Amino acid sequence: MDQPTAPQVQPGETGIIRKLYKWVLHWADTPYALPALFLLAFTESSFFPIPPDVLLMALCMGAPKRSFRYVFWCSLASVLGGILGYYIGYGFYDTIGVRIIDTLGYQHHFETVGTYYGDNAFLAIVTAAFTPIPYKVFTIAAGVFHENVSLATLVLASSIGRTARFALVGGAIYFFGPPVKAILDKYLEWLTIAFALLLIGGFVLIKVLH
Description:
With 210 residues, the protein is an all-alpha fold. The chain has one domain (15-209). The chain contains 9 helices and no strands. The chain has helices at 15-26, 33-44, 53-62, 67-91, 93-103, 107-126, 135-144, 151-176, 181-209. The longest helix has 29 residues, at 181-209. The radius of gyration is 17 Å and the shape is globular.
């Protein structure tokens, strides 16, 4: 199977992260690839540091015709994992949530997301999938700032945003095949930002028309 190059590890990230990337990718060549993708997407929404995109891309590259099947399960698991993240923030932030945020070095992002929720929680979560801020920060923060973010808002917005993100990856491979691999490896973040802007524009247009 042609596996994608693991996303570049940023300065300051340890060799443990590199090993985790390799460990995640190795599941693509096993009979447990789909369960591994589901578990990865679920845990990444609340505490695991490696995004599911890396395994999703590998599976779609190996079986392009199954891309949207992988997108569906990845999206579902991510939303369900977001619910776990919400409850970690809601009831266990002082014992578990704060350790996750501090251990992964996301405290600054956490405070930023809290500000976003004070402005427009739904839009913040929809676009969370397309920002450099890890999704787990949004889910845990949603539980902490539950006065501004209901669980229903988190689930609905996450369903839209996370599905759109993973569909961008799976859809590109489904329609364009292996040649798109290098583009996704190099420009995934820019592509998702552009997709997010189109998504936001659609919401604004709907609001204006109504």
